[in-house]
Amino acid sequence: MTAAPLTDELVLETLRQVIDPELGLNIVDLGLVYRYACAAGKLTVTMTLTTPGCPMHDSIAEGVKNILLTLDGVAEVEVEVVWDPPWHPSMMTETGRAMAGVRSF
Amino acid sequence: MQASAVRVPLCFVLTGVLSLLVSGGALLAQPDLLAMYHYTPHLIAITHLFVLGFICSIVMGAMYQLVPVTLETQIYSERLVKFQFAAHVIGFVGIVWAFWNFNMAMVGAFGSLLTLGVGLFVFNLACTLAKVKRWNTIKFGITSALLWLSATVAAGLFVTASKFWNFFAFQPLAAMHAHAHLGVVGVFVLMIVTVSYKLVPMFTLSELQSERRAWCSVALINIGLVGIFITVLFQEPFKPLFALVTISGFLLYGWEMVAILRARNRSALDWGMKYFLTAIGLLLPLSILALALTWSGLAVNALTMQLESVYGLLGLLGLVGLAILGMLYKIVPFLVWFHSYSRHIGRAKVPALADMYSVPLQIAGYWIFLMGLSGLSLATAWSHAAGIRWGGGLLALSLAIFVLNMGKILAHYIRPQVEPFSKKSNSATKTL
Protein backbone atom coordinates (compact mmCIF):
# COMPACT_ATOMS: atom_id res chain seq x y z
CA MET A 1 0.00 0.00 0.00
CA THR A 2 1.32 3.44 -0.93
CA ALA A 3 1.07 5.96 1.89
CA ALA A 4 -0.67 9.23 0.98
CA PRO A 5 0.52 12.48 2.56
CA LEU A 6 -1.03 13.39 5.87
CA THR A 7 -3.84 15.80 5.19
CA ASP A 8 -5.40 18.22 7.67
CA GLU A 9 -8.71 16.44 7.21
CA LEU A 10 -7.23 13.09 8.09
CA VAL A 11 -5.37 14.29 11.18
CA LEU A 12 -8.37 16.26 12.47
CA GLU A 13 -10.81 13.47 11.70
CA THR A 14 -8.55 11.07 13.60
CA LEU A 15 -8.20 13.43 16.57
CA ARG A 16 -12.00 13.83 16.70
CA GLN A 17 -12.09 10.34 18.20
CA VAL A 18 -10.45 11.59 21.39
CA ILE A 19 -13.08 13.05 23.70
CA ASP A 20 -13.05 15.18 26.82
CA PRO A 21 -15.28 12.92 28.97
CA GLU A 22 -16.60 15.75 31.17
CA LEU A 23 -17.99 17.75 28.26
CA GLY A 24 -18.61 14.66 26.11
CA LEU A 25 -17.08 16.43 23.14
CA ASN A 26 -14.05 15.69 20.97
CA ILE A 27 -10.86 17.72 21.42
CA VAL A 28 -10.92 19.20 17.92
CA ASP A 29 -14.39 20.72 18.18
CA LEU A 30 -13.51 21.84 21.70
CA GLY A 31 -10.65 23.85 20.18
CA LEU A 32 -8.00 22.15 22.28
CA VAL A 33 -5.69 21.39 19.35
CA TYR A 34 -3.62 24.49 18.60
CA ARG A 35 -1.34 23.19 15.84
CA TYR A 36 0.52 20.17 14.55
CA ALA A 37 3.47 19.57 12.32
CA CYS A 38 4.88 16.48 10.66
CA ALA A 39 8.49 15.89 9.74
CA ALA A 40 10.19 12.58 8.89
CA GLY A 41 7.43 10.47 10.36
CA LYS A 42 7.27 12.44 13.59
CA LEU A 43 4.02 14.24 14.33
CA THR A 44 4.22 17.02 16.90
CA VAL A 45 0.92 18.20 18.36
CA THR A 46 0.60 21.37 20.41
CA MET A 47 -2.59 21.41 22.41
CA THR A 48 -4.16 22.64 25.62
CA LEU A 49 -6.84 21.50 28.08
CA THR A 50 -9.94 23.31 29.29
CA THR A 51 -8.44 24.04 32.71
CA PRO A 52 -4.94 23.96 34.20
CA GLY A 53 -4.56 21.08 36.64
CA CYS A 54 -7.13 19.07 34.69
CA PRO A 55 -6.89 15.48 36.06
CA MET A 56 -7.46 14.18 32.52
CA HIS A 57 -4.17 15.76 31.45
CA ASP A 58 -2.16 12.53 31.04
CA SER A 59 -5.09 10.46 29.73
CA ILE A 60 -5.99 12.88 26.96
CA ALA A 61 -2.37 13.46 25.94
CA GLU A 62 -1.81 9.69 25.86
CA GLY A 63 -5.03 9.25 23.89
CA VAL A 64 -3.78 11.72 21.27
CA LYS A 65 -0.54 9.76 20.97
CA ASN A 66 -2.35 6.42 20.71
CA ILE A 67 -4.77 7.51 18.02
CA LEU A 68 -2.18 9.29 15.86
CA LEU A 69 0.16 6.31 15.97
CA THR A 70 -2.54 4.33 14.13
CA LEU A 71 -1.98 6.51 11.07
CA ASP A 72 0.22 5.04 8.37
CA GLY A 73 3.42 7.00 8.01
CA VAL A 74 3.44 8.21 11.61
CA ALA A 75 6.24 6.55 13.55
CA GLU A 76 6.46 8.92 16.49
CA VAL A 77 4.10 11.38 18.16
CA GLU A 78 5.03 14.15 20.55
CA VAL A 79 2.27 15.91 22.45
CA GLU A 80 3.05 19.25 23.98
CA VAL A 81 0.41 20.59 26.38
CA VAL A 82 0.62 24.39 26.69
CA TRP A 83 -1.34 26.94 28.73
CA ASP A 84 -0.57 29.99 26.64
CA PRO A 85 -2.84 31.07 25.13
CA PRO A 86 -5.30 29.77 27.73
CA TRP A 87 -8.27 27.90 26.34
CA HIS A 88 -11.51 29.82 25.99
CA PRO A 89 -14.91 28.66 24.66
CA SER A 90 -14.51 31.09 21.74
CA MET A 91 -11.90 28.61 20.41
CA MET A 92 -14.59 25.95 19.92
CA THR A 93 -15.94 25.22 16.46
CA GLU A 94 -19.55 26.07 15.63
CA THR A 95 -20.36 22.34 15.76
CA GLY A 96 -18.70 22.03 19.15
CA ARG A 97 -20.61 24.98 20.58
CA ALA A 98 -23.89 23.57 19.37
CA MET A 99 -23.10 20.14 20.83
CA ALA A 100 -21.97 21.48 24.22
CA GLY A 101 -24.73 24.07 24.53
CA VAL A 102 -22.25 26.93 24.44
CA ARG A 103 -23.43 30.33 23.26
CA SER A 104 -22.09 31.62 19.93
CA PHE A 105 -19.51 34.40 19.81
CA MET B 1 -2.98 10.53 38.63
CA GLN B 2 -2.42 6.83 39.40
CA ALA B 3 -5.00 4.02 39.62
CA SER B 4 -4.31 3.66 43.36
CA ALA B 5 -5.06 7.37 43.72
CA VAL B 6 -8.54 6.62 42.41
CA ARG B 7 -9.23 3.58 44.60
CA VAL B 8 -8.80 5.29 47.96
CA PRO B 9 -11.03 8.33 47.26
CA LEU B 10 -13.58 5.84 45.93
CA CYS B 11 -13.39 3.92 49.25
CA PHE B 12 -14.14 7.16 51.12
CA VAL B 13 -17.08 7.83 48.81
CA LEU B 14 -18.51 4.32 49.20
CA THR B 15 -18.14 4.55 53.00
CA GLY B 16 -20.01 7.84 52.82
CA VAL B 17 -22.87 6.45 50.73
CA LEU B 18 -23.19 3.42 53.05
CA SER B 19 -23.27 5.71 56.12
CA LEU B 20 -25.93 7.82 54.43
CA LEU B 21 -28.10 4.74 53.91
CA VAL B 22 -27.66 3.51 57.48
CA SER B 23 -28.30 6.94 59.05
CA GLY B 24 -31.33 7.46 56.81
CA GLY B 25 -32.65 4.00 57.70
CA ALA B 26 -32.10 4.59 61.43
CA LEU B 27 -34.02 7.86 61.29
CA LEU B 28 -36.80 6.28 59.30
CA ALA B 29 -37.07 3.50 61.88
CA GLN B 30 -37.38 6.05 64.70
CA PRO B 31 -39.08 9.15 63.22
CA ASP B 32 -40.19 10.23 66.69
CA LEU B 33 -36.60 11.32 67.34
CA LEU B 34 -37.17 14.37 65.16
CA ALA B 35 -40.49 15.15 66.80
CA MET B 36 -38.76 15.77 70.16
CA TYR B 37 -35.91 18.07 71.20
CA HIS B 38 -32.60 17.03 69.58
CA TYR B 39 -30.54 16.37 72.74
CA THR B 40 -31.01 12.57 72.89
CA PRO B 41 -28.31 9.84 72.66
CA HIS B 42 -29.82 8.15 69.61
CA LEU B 43 -30.26 11.36 67.64
CA ILE B 44 -26.72 12.46 68.56
CA ALA B 45 -25.45 9.04 67.39
CA ILE B 46 -27.36 9.28 64.09
CA THR B 47 -26.18 12.87 63.59
CA HIS B 48 -22.56 11.76 64.07
CA LEU B 49 -23.07 8.87 61.65
CA PHE B 50 -24.45 11.34 59.11
CA VAL B 51 -21.79 13.98 59.77
CA LEU B 52 -18.69 11.81 60.26
CA GLY B 53 -19.70 8.76 58.22
CA PHE B 54 -21.44 10.44 55.30
CA ILE B 55 -20.35 14.07 55.07
CA CYS B 56 -16.79 13.78 56.42
CA SER B 57 -15.98 10.64 54.42
CA ILE B 58 -17.21 12.23 51.20
CA VAL B 59 -15.53 15.56 51.92
CA MET B 60 -12.21 13.85 52.69
CA GLY B 61 -12.37 11.61 49.60
CA ALA B 62 -13.41 14.58 47.49
CA MET B 63 -10.64 16.79 48.85
CA TYR B 64 -8.03 14.21 47.92
CA GLN B 65 -9.33 14.46 44.38
CA LEU B 66 -10.30 18.14 44.20
CA VAL B 67 -7.35 19.80 45.92
CA PRO B 68 -4.91 18.72 43.20
CA VAL B 69 -7.40 20.00 40.59
CA THR B 70 -8.22 23.30 42.28
CA LEU B 71 -4.62 24.08 43.27
CA GLU B 72 -2.99 22.44 40.25
CA THR B 73 -0.63 20.23 42.26
CA GLN B 74 -0.28 16.64 43.56
CA ILE B 75 -1.29 15.20 46.95
CA TYR B 76 1.72 15.18 49.31
CA SER B 77 1.48 11.49 50.32
CA GLU B 78 -0.90 8.86 48.97
CA ARG B 79 0.33 6.34 51.57
CA LEU B 80 -0.89 8.57 54.42
CA VAL B 81 -4.33 8.60 52.81
CA LYS B 82 -4.65 4.83 53.39
CA PHE B 83 -3.70 5.08 57.08
CA GLN B 84 -6.08 7.98 57.50
CA PHE B 85 -8.91 6.00 55.94
CA ALA B 86 -8.45 3.16 58.46
CA ALA B 87 -8.31 5.54 61.47
CA HIS B 88 -11.33 7.47 60.17
CA VAL B 89 -13.58 4.44 59.65
CA ILE B 90 -12.74 2.70 62.95
CA GLY B 91 -12.97 6.07 64.75
CA PHE B 92 -16.38 7.16 63.49
CA VAL B 93 -18.01 3.73 63.74
CA GLY B 94 -16.82 3.52 67.35
CA ILE B 95 -18.04 7.04 68.17
CA VAL B 96 -21.48 6.31 66.77
CA TRP B 97 -21.70 3.08 68.75
CA ALA B 98 -20.53 4.88 71.92
CA PHE B 99 -23.02 7.75 71.51
CA TRP B 100 -25.84 5.27 70.88
CA ASN B 101 -25.05 3.70 74.27
CA PHE B 102 -24.08 7.10 75.70
CA ASN B 103 -20.74 5.76 76.88
CA MET B 104 -18.65 8.92 77.08
CA ALA B 105 -15.43 7.05 77.92
CA MET B 106 -15.66 5.15 74.63
CA VAL B 107 -16.63 8.37 72.81
CA GLY B 108 -13.32 9.74 74.06
CA ALA B 109 -11.36 6.62 73.09
CA PHE B 110 -12.73 6.36 69.55
CA GLY B 111 -12.69 10.16 69.28
CA SER B 112 -8.94 10.06 69.89
CA LEU B 113 -8.53 7.60 67.01
CA LEU B 114 -10.69 9.79 64.79
CA THR B 115 -8.53 12.76 65.82
CA LEU B 116 -5.45 10.85 64.70
CA GLY B 117 -7.09 10.34 61.31
CA VAL B 118 -8.06 14.00 61.09
CA GLY B 119 -4.49 14.93 62.05
CA LEU B 120 -3.15 12.83 59.15
CA PHE B 121 -5.70 14.38 56.79
CA VAL B 122 -4.82 17.92 57.87
CA PHE B 123 -1.07 17.21 57.73
CA ASN B 124 -1.31 15.70 54.25
CA LEU B 125 -3.38 18.55 52.88
CA ALA B 126 -1.29 21.20 54.67
CA CYS B 127 1.87 19.78 53.03
CA THR B 128 0.03 19.78 49.69
CA LEU B 129 -1.03 23.41 50.20
CA ALA B 130 2.55 24.33 51.13
CA LYS B 131 3.66 23.25 47.65
CA VAL B 132 1.53 26.08 46.24
CA LYS B 133 3.51 29.26 46.70
CA ARG B 134 0.89 31.81 45.66
CA TRP B 135 -1.90 32.66 48.09
CA ASN B 136 -5.29 32.85 46.41
CA THR B 137 -8.89 32.52 47.59
CA ILE B 138 -8.85 28.75 47.23
CA LYS B 139 -5.69 28.23 49.26
CA PHE B 140 -7.01 30.69 51.87
CA GLY B 141 -10.39 28.93 52.08
CA ILE B 142 -9.04 25.39 52.26
CA THR B 143 -6.42 26.38 54.85
CA SER B 144 -9.16 27.98 56.95
CA ALA B 145 -11.38 24.92 56.65
CA LEU B 146 -8.50 22.68 57.77
CA LEU B 147 -7.93 24.88 60.81
CA TRP B 148 -11.64 24.75 61.63
CA LEU B 149 -11.61 20.97 61.22
CA SER B 150 -8.79 20.69 63.75
CA ALA B 151 -10.64 23.07 66.07
CA THR B 152 -13.91 21.12 65.70
CA VAL B 153 -12.32 17.80 66.61
CA ALA B 154 -10.36 19.38 69.47
CA ALA B 155 -13.52 21.06 70.77
CA GLY B 156 -15.45 17.78 70.53
CA LEU B 157 -12.77 15.90 72.47
CA PHE B 158 -12.51 18.72 75.03
CA VAL B 159 -16.25 18.73 75.65
CA THR B 160 -16.24 14.93 75.98
CA ALA B 161 -13.31 15.00 78.42
CA SER B 162 -14.84 17.82 80.48
CA LYS B 163 -18.09 15.87 80.68
CA PHE B 164 -16.31 12.69 81.71
CA TRP B 165 -13.91 14.17 84.26
CA ASN B 166 -16.09 17.14 85.16
CA PHE B 167 -13.21 19.61 85.03
CA PHE B 168 -14.88 22.42 83.11
CA ALA B 169 -18.58 23.09 83.46
CA PHE B 170 -19.87 24.07 80.01
CA GLN B 171 -23.55 24.44 79.49
CA PRO B 172 -23.96 21.15 77.51
CA LEU B 173 -26.37 22.46 74.87
CA ALA B 174 -24.28 25.57 74.28
CA ALA B 175 -21.13 23.43 73.92
CA MET B 176 -22.90 21.10 71.48
CA HIS B 177 -24.22 24.01 69.38
CA ALA B 178 -20.82 25.76 69.34
CA HIS B 179 -19.09 22.50 68.31
CA ALA B 180 -21.70 21.92 65.58
CA HIS B 181 -21.26 25.44 64.13
CA LEU B 182 -17.50 25.01 64.00
CA GLY B 183 -17.89 21.80 62.03
CA VAL B 184 -20.78 22.65 59.74
CA VAL B 185 -19.99 26.29 58.92
CA GLY B 186 -16.22 26.22 59.41
CA VAL B 187 -15.48 22.96 57.66
CA PHE B 188 -18.30 21.90 55.35
CA VAL B 189 -19.81 25.22 54.27
CA LEU B 190 -16.41 26.87 53.93
CA MET B 191 -15.15 23.98 51.78
CA ILE B 192 -18.30 24.14 49.61
CA VAL B 193 -17.83 27.91 49.21
CA THR B 194 -14.13 27.57 48.42
CA VAL B 195 -14.18 24.72 45.92
CA SER B 196 -17.16 26.23 44.13
CA TYR B 197 -15.01 29.22 43.19
CA LYS B 198 -13.05 26.80 41.01
CA LEU B 199 -15.62 24.16 40.10
CA VAL B 200 -18.63 26.30 39.16
CA PRO B 201 -16.61 28.29 36.56
CA MET B 202 -15.03 25.02 35.38
CA PHE B 203 -18.31 23.18 34.85
CA THR B 204 -20.22 26.14 33.40
CA LEU B 205 -17.33 27.39 31.23
CA SER B 206 -17.11 30.70 33.03
CA GLU B 207 -14.51 32.59 35.07
CA LEU B 208 -14.18 33.97 38.56
CA GLN B 209 -15.47 37.54 38.21
CA SER B 210 -13.87 39.18 41.25
CA GLU B 211 -10.98 37.63 43.18
CA ARG B 212 -11.31 40.37 45.81
CA ARG B 213 -15.03 39.67 46.34
CA ALA B 214 -14.32 35.94 46.66
CA TRP B 215 -11.47 36.56 49.12
CA CYS B 216 -13.62 38.94 51.22
CA SER B 217 -16.44 36.39 51.39
CA VAL B 218 -14.10 33.76 52.87
CA ALA B 219 -12.59 36.31 55.28
CA LEU B 220 -16.02 37.44 56.54
CA ILE B 221 -17.21 33.86 57.06
CA ASN B 222 -14.05 33.20 59.08
CA ILE B 223 -14.31 36.35 61.21
CA GLY B 224 -18.00 35.79 61.89
CA LEU B 225 -17.42 32.17 62.86
CA VAL B 226 -14.84 33.06 65.52
CA GLY B 227 -17.43 35.32 67.12
CA ILE B 228 -20.27 32.82 66.68
CA PHE B 229 -18.27 30.09 68.40
CA ILE B 230 -17.40 32.26 71.41
CA THR B 231 -20.85 33.85 71.80
CA VAL B 232 -22.69 30.54 71.40
CA LEU B 233 -20.37 28.70 73.79
CA PHE B 234 -20.53 31.37 76.51
CA GLN B 235 -24.12 32.38 75.68
CA GLU B 236 -23.13 36.00 75.08
CA PRO B 237 -25.67 38.50 73.71
CA PHE B 238 -23.64 39.40 70.58
CA LYS B 239 -24.64 36.28 68.62
CA PRO B 240 -26.75 38.22 66.02
CA LEU B 241 -23.87 40.60 65.34
CA PHE B 242 -21.43 37.81 64.43
CA ALA B 243 -24.17 35.93 62.60
CA LEU B 244 -24.57 39.07 60.47
CA VAL B 245 -20.83 39.15 59.73
CA THR B 246 -20.93 35.54 58.48
CA ILE B 247 -24.15 36.18 56.56
CA SER B 248 -22.50 39.17 54.84
CA GLY B 249 -19.80 36.70 53.72
CA PHE B 250 -22.54 34.46 52.30
CA LEU B 251 -24.10 37.45 50.52
CA LEU B 252 -20.78 38.27 48.84
CA TYR B 253 -20.47 34.61 47.92
CA GLY B 254 -23.97 34.62 46.41
CA TRP B 255 -23.17 37.81 44.52
CA GLU B 256 -20.04 36.22 43.03
CA MET B 257 -21.89 33.01 42.12
CA VAL B 258 -24.58 35.01 40.29
CA ALA B 259 -21.86 36.96 38.46
CA ILE B 260 -20.07 33.73 37.47
CA LEU B 261 -23.31 32.17 36.24
CA ARG B 262 -24.28 35.28 34.28
CA ALA B 263 -20.91 35.21 32.53
CA ARG B 264 -21.07 31.49 31.73
CA ASN B 265 -20.63 30.27 28.19
CA ARG B 266 -22.46 26.99 28.68
CA SER B 267 -26.13 27.96 28.68
CA ALA B 268 -27.55 24.62 29.84
CA LEU B 269 -26.69 23.61 33.40
CA ASP B 270 -26.40 19.88 34.00
CA TRP B 271 -28.39 18.34 36.87
CA GLY B 272 -25.33 17.78 39.03
CA MET B 273 -24.84 21.55 38.97
CA LYS B 274 -28.56 22.13 39.65
CA TYR B 275 -28.32 19.97 42.78
CA PHE B 276 -25.29 21.97 43.91
CA LEU B 277 -26.72 25.41 43.13
CA THR B 278 -30.04 24.58 44.81
CA ALA B 279 -28.09 23.51 47.89
CA ILE B 280 -26.20 26.78 48.13
CA GLY B 281 -29.49 28.62 47.55
CA LEU B 282 -30.56 27.19 50.91
CA LEU B 283 -28.05 29.57 52.53
CA LEU B 284 -30.77 32.24 52.24
CA PRO B 285 -33.48 30.57 54.41
CA LEU B 286 -30.76 29.26 56.70
CA SER B 287 -29.39 32.76 57.26
CA ILE B 288 -32.87 34.11 58.04
CA LEU B 289 -33.49 31.24 60.45
CA ALA B 290 -30.09 31.76 62.08
CA LEU B 291 -30.81 35.44 62.68
CA ALA B 292 -34.24 34.62 64.11
CA LEU B 293 -32.82 31.98 66.45
CA THR B 294 -30.08 34.28 67.75
CA TRP B 295 -32.53 37.10 68.52
CA SER B 296 -32.69 37.48 72.29
CA GLY B 297 -36.38 38.45 72.20
CA LEU B 298 -37.42 35.13 70.66
CA ALA B 299 -40.03 33.38 72.77
CA VAL B 300 -38.97 29.98 74.13
CA ASN B 301 -41.77 27.59 73.24
CA ALA B 302 -42.25 24.21 71.54
CA LEU B 303 -42.19 25.74 68.05
CA THR B 304 -39.01 27.79 68.52
CA MET B 305 -37.26 24.81 70.13
CA GLN B 306 -38.19 22.67 67.12
CA LEU B 307 -36.98 25.41 64.77
CA GLU B 308 -33.46 24.63 66.02
CA SER B 309 -33.91 21.09 64.68
CA VAL B 310 -35.23 22.49 61.38
CA TYR B 311 -32.13 24.72 61.21
CA GLY B 312 -29.89 21.67 61.70
CA LEU B 313 -31.87 19.62 59.15
CA LEU B 314 -31.76 22.33 56.49
CA GLY B 315 -28.07 22.92 57.12
CA LEU B 316 -26.87 19.33 57.22
CA LEU B 317 -29.32 17.48 55.02
CA GLY B 318 -30.34 20.37 52.76
CA LEU B 319 -27.29 22.53 52.22
CA VAL B 320 -24.40 20.12 52.83
CA GLY B 321 -26.22 16.89 51.86
CA LEU B 322 -27.66 18.15 48.57
CA ALA B 323 -24.39 19.87 47.62
CA ILE B 324 -22.58 16.58 48.20
CA LEU B 325 -25.09 14.60 46.12
CA GLY B 326 -24.59 17.10 43.29
CA MET B 327 -20.81 16.88 43.53
CA LEU B 328 -20.93 13.07 43.71
CA TYR B 329 -22.57 13.12 40.28
CA LYS B 330 -19.32 14.76 39.13
CA ILE B 331 -16.76 12.97 41.29
CA VAL B 332 -17.85 9.32 41.16
CA PRO B 333 -18.25 9.15 37.35
CA PHE B 334 -14.84 10.76 37.01
CA LEU B 335 -13.13 8.31 39.42
CA VAL B 336 -14.74 5.29 37.77
CA TRP B 337 -14.11 6.63 34.29
CA PHE B 338 -10.48 7.24 35.15
CA HIS B 339 -10.08 3.70 36.46
CA SER B 340 -11.90 1.97 33.62
CA TYR B 341 -11.37 4.10 30.52
CA SER B 342 -8.33 6.35 30.76
CA ARG B 343 -6.03 3.68 29.26
CA HIS B 344 -8.47 3.11 26.37
CA ILE B 345 -8.69 6.71 25.25
CA GLY B 346 -7.45 7.00 21.68
CA ARG B 347 -7.57 3.20 21.30
CA ALA B 348 -11.33 2.61 21.46
CA LYS B 349 -14.64 4.44 21.83
CA VAL B 350 -15.23 5.32 25.50
CA PRO B 351 -18.35 6.80 27.12
CA ALA B 352 -18.59 10.40 28.34
CA LEU B 353 -19.20 10.89 32.08
CA ALA B 354 -22.87 11.74 31.55
CA ASP B 355 -23.39 8.45 29.67
CA MET B 356 -22.55 6.46 32.81
CA TYR B 357 -25.81 7.14 34.69
CA SER B 358 -29.48 7.85 34.04
CA VAL B 359 -30.30 11.55 33.79
CA PRO B 360 -34.10 10.97 34.10
CA LEU B 361 -33.44 9.15 37.40
CA GLN B 362 -31.20 12.02 38.49
CA ILE B 363 -33.99 14.52 37.75
CA ALA B 364 -36.58 12.42 39.60
CA GLY B 365 -34.23 12.15 42.59
CA TYR B 366 -33.79 15.93 42.65
CA TRP B 367 -37.52 16.74 42.86
CA ILE B 368 -38.29 13.95 45.32
CA PHE B 369 -35.43 15.13 47.54
CA LEU B 370 -36.78 18.68 47.59
CA MET B 371 -40.33 17.49 48.36
CA GLY B 372 -39.00 15.24 51.12
CA LEU B 373 -36.84 17.99 52.63
CA SER B 374 -39.73 20.49 52.61
CA GLY B 375 -42.12 17.97 54.14
CA LEU B 376 -39.63 16.84 56.76
CA SER B 377 -38.77 20.42 57.75
CA LEU B 378 -42.42 21.45 58.14
CA ALA B 379 -43.32 18.27 60.02
CA THR B 380 -40.31 18.67 62.33
CA ALA B 381 -41.26 22.28 63.10
CA TRP B 382 -44.74 21.15 64.16
CA SER B 383 -43.54 17.87 65.78
CA HIS B 384 -45.84 15.97 63.44
CA ALA B 385 -44.69 12.32 63.58
CA ALA B 386 -46.72 11.12 60.56
CA GLY B 387 -45.45 14.05 58.47
CA ILE B 388 -41.89 13.25 59.53
CA ARG B 389 -42.42 9.67 58.39
CA TRP B 390 -43.74 10.85 54.98
CA GLY B 391 -40.98 13.40 54.51
CA GLY B 392 -38.37 10.87 55.58
CA GLY B 393 -39.91 8.31 53.24
CA LEU B 394 -39.60 10.67 50.27
CA LEU B 395 -35.99 11.42 51.19
CA ALA B 396 -35.32 7.69 51.46
CA LEU B 397 -36.85 7.20 47.99
CA SER B 398 -34.65 9.95 46.62
CA LEU B 399 -31.59 8.34 48.20
CA ALA B 400 -32.60 4.94 46.78
CA ILE B 401 -32.70 6.54 43.32
CA PHE B 402 -29.31 8.10 43.97
CA VAL B 403 -27.86 4.74 45.04
CA LEU B 404 -29.33 3.11 41.92
CA ASN B 405 -27.58 5.69 39.77
CA MET B 406 -24.33 5.21 41.69
CA GLY B 407 -24.72 1.46 41.05
CA LYS B 408 -25.01 2.18 37.31
CA ILE B 409 -21.79 4.17 37.48
CA LEU B 410 -19.97 1.51 39.50
CA ALA B 411 -21.04 -1.13 36.97
CA HIS B 412 -18.55 0.57 34.63
CA TYR B 413 -15.85 -0.10 37.25
CA ILE B 414 -16.60 -3.82 37.18
CA ARG B 415 -17.43 -4.19 33.49
CA PRO B 416 -16.14 -1.34 31.30
CA GLN B 417 -18.12 -0.70 28.11
CA VAL B 418 -15.45 -0.18 25.48
CA GLU B 419 -16.42 -0.23 21.81
CA PRO B 420 -14.13 -0.29 18.78
CA PHE B 421 -14.02 2.89 16.72
CA SER B 422 -16.57 3.20 13.93
CA LYS B 423 -15.77 1.75 10.49
CA LYS B 424 -15.74 5.24 8.97
CA SER B 425 -12.72 6.22 11.03
CA ASN B 426 -10.91 2.96 10.32
CA SER B 427 -11.31 3.47 6.59
CA ALA B 428 -10.08 7.03 6.97
CA THR B 429 -6.94 5.68 8.58
CA LYS B 430 -6.42 3.10 5.88
CA THR B 431 -6.72 5.56 2.99
CA LEU B 432 -3.50 7.21 4.07
Could you characterize the architecture of this molecule?
The complex is a heterodimer of chains A (105) and B (432). With 105 residues, chain A is α+β, with helices and mostly antiparallel strands. Chain A has one domain: Fe-S cluster assembly (FSCA) (GMP Synthetase, Chain A, domain 3, 2-Layer Sandwich), CATH 3.30.300.130. Chain A has helices at residues 8-15, 57-68, 94-100, and strands at residues 19-20, 25-26, 33-39, 42-47, 76-81. In chain A, the strands form 2 sheets. A 3-stranded mixed β-sheet of chain A has the order 3-4-5, with helices on one face. In chain A, strands 1-2 form a two-stranded antiparallel ribbon. Chain B is globular, with a radius of gyration of 22 Å. Chain B contains 15 helices and no strands. Among the domains of chain B are: 1-133; 281-419, no CATH class. The chains are: A alpha+beta (105), B mainly alpha (432). The interface between A and B is large, with 41 and 38 residues.
Gap from first CA to last CA of chain B: 35 Å
Strand ordering within the main sheet of chain A: 3-4-5
**Principal-axes shape call of chain B:** globular
The parts of chain B where pLDDT drops under 50 for at least 5 residues are: 424-432
Estimate the strand proportion of chain B: under 5%
DSSP helix fraction of chain A = 25-40%
Q: Give the overall pLDDT of chain A as a whole number.
A: 85
Major sheet characteristics of chain B: none
- Following the backbone from N to C, one meets helices and strands of chain B in this order, namely HHHHHHHHHHHHHHH
Which fold name is given in CATH as the topology of chain A? GMP Synthetase, Chain A, domain 3
Task: Compute the CA-based radius of gyration of chain A.
Answer: 14 Å
- The CATH homologous superfamily of chain A corresponds to Fe-S cluster assembly (FSCA)
Number of helices of chain A: 3
What proportion of the residues of chain A form beta strands (DSSP E)?
Answer: 15-25%
End-to-end Cα distance of chain A, whole Å, is 44 Å
The chain-level structural class of chain A is alpha+beta
Low-confidence stretches of chain A: none
Class of chain A, according to the CATH hierarchy?
A: Alpha Beta
Chain oligomer state: heterodimer
Question: How many structural domains can be distinguished in the coordinates of chain A?
Answer: 1
SSE arrangement of chain A, N to C:
HEEEEHEH
